[in-house]
Every structure is written in C-alpha cells, then in structure tokens.
C-alpha cells in the first residue's frame, strides 16, 4: 500500500493543474478530468489502469468520472477503481471528486435500465458497493429516457443527496426542454444542478445551440465528454486503423465505419493548424473544447500514462487567435 510520501507534495501536485469553479457553486474542478469509460474494465490491464490513475492524481487531476455500466463487463470499471483506491489512495479521499451515473441498461429485467426511481436507487447502492465508497461527490442521471417523467427522476436525485449518498447531482445528455425542467425542479428544492455533462468536440457541436447557455442560465457547471471524438481528433488514424486502437477493439464504441475518408481529410487539415501552434492535434482539440468560458472541465480517457502525459500538455497552450478559430470553423464547415 502506498503512503503519502509516494506522492508529490500537495502544493506541487495542484500547481500543475488549473481549477475552475463549477457553475454557481463553491466546488472547483480541474480543467481536465479523467474518465473511466474505456480502459478500466475487466478486459483491461489493472496495473496500467492503476498507473494512469496515480499519474493523473500526481498531476492535479482530482476528478474521476465513472458510470455504473462502464466496463466491459458493465460494473467492472467501478470494481477496479474501488480496488485501486483501496490499495493506493487510503487517506486521499477528501482530495478527490468521484462521480458516477445511472440510466443506461445495466442488468436484466424491466428495472435494469432507464431513469425510474427504482433503477436509480438500486443503481447508486450497487455502485457504492462496487467502489467501496460511502458516498459519491457527484451522481448523475445518465440520460433522459423519453419514458420516465423528469419529475420522478429529479426527485430521486434530490432524495439521494438528502440521504447522504451523494454531495451533488447532475444531468447528462438531456434535451434542452427536459434539462430546463430538471434545473427548475432542483432549484426549487434547494438542491441545484451542480453540473451538466454532454458530448462536445469539433465534430459534435449541438450543445452550442441551447444546452450551454441553458446550463449557464441556471448556474450549472458544464463538463464535456469525448473531446477527442474517441480518438478521431488525434493523429492516430491519419494512415489507417492501427492495431490495438479503439476502433480496432471488438468491444469498443468506435466503429471503423465512423472513420471515413472525408473525416480523415478534415483531421489532416486540422492537424496542420495544430502543428503550426506547436501542438499535437489531440492537444489542440482539448484546448478548443476548453476555449468557451462556460465549459468547466473536459473529460479525457487514456490507455497509457504516455497518452495521458501528452494530452495534459494541452494546458500549456490554451489560447487561440481569431484567425485560428476562423480557420478551424472553415475546415469543419
């Protein structure tokens, strides 16, 4: 078991990362958070996963993002994260923000998915057992399921806070109309929505129409997942699909059919701008996601310490010139 002396002094650790207040709250999040959607499940190498999390924490990443269905197999990312915490981070819990979510299909039968009270209450209890935690810092409704009334889902989240199972609550992937209703209910109950989580990257910008401004209106922080479009916004696929890449894995969400010649040509042009900025494409894509002041944090994944180290270099050059932004928009259009 590691002792506190195994880690960098706290002042050094936190000097490496910018932090930002999350919406209208007193909670700060690192500008870059670590997501455990991929590479932390039962099919993955636990030692590599451990090394990634330790490096992340040593470099100021205090926020670790989970969901009950992360794996594969579903639930195994929470189990592995719990093992890593127990064996390496005893005494550090109060320096961490740990989030989880529920709402996607998780177990067999009519209660194993969606956003009902039955599912959410069972899900958070299961997630706490898998991780070995006494509470989550943030617990999300993972999606609006188009069936469960928003009032039912949100009241359950409020009750989860009041029961002490989570400190804060959030929503993920809610359409604007349902998001507004959720924000209203939470505000009236005195348990405001701390944070809203949506997919956001150069290729997927739908949130710019309403969701970003809506979250800001209600004082919710905003966290972007998949800022690298699952690896497409890197130089990884410029010359085909490499062996062991996410698109080559049989259990991944990124399919080879998504990597079209047209998309790769766009990536090639974006890569030229990144090179002119002295960055990798991944670093520029992260900086681009964080350019909007309404974005609190971006969630990145990592399959190795080297990849995480390289992506954290995005923090060294976050500013864009007007010309760079215009050139990027022209390429994307």
**Level-2 CATH architecture:** Alpha-Beta Barrel
Structural class: alpha/beta
Quote the CATH topology. Answer: TIM Barrel
Q: Tally of extended strands?
A: 10
Mean pLDDT rating: 93
Helix content: 25-40%
Give helix and strand order, one letter per element, not per position.
HEEEHEHEHEHEHEHEHHEHH
What is the approximate shape? Answer: globular
Terminal-residue CA separation: 52 Å
Q: CATH class, please?
A: Alpha Beta
- Assembly annotation: single chain
Mind summarizing the main beta sheet?
A: 8 strands, parallel, barrel
In which order are the strands of the major sheet placed? 3-4-5-6-7-8-9-10
TL;DR of this structure?
By secondary structure, the chain is of the alpha/beta class.
Report what the structure shows:
The chain is α/β, with parallel strands linked by helices and 333 residues long. It has a single domain (4-232, 287-304), classed as NADP-dependent oxidoreductase domain (TIM Barrel). Helix content is 38%, strand content 14%. It is built from eleven helices and ten strands. The strands form two sheets. Strands 3-4-5-6-7-8-9-10 form an eight-stranded parallel barrel, surrounded by five helices. Helix 4 (117-131) packs parallel to helix 5 and helix 5 (150-162) packs parallel to helix 6. The termini are far apart. The relative contact order is 0.12. Residues 1-5 have low confidence and may be disordered.
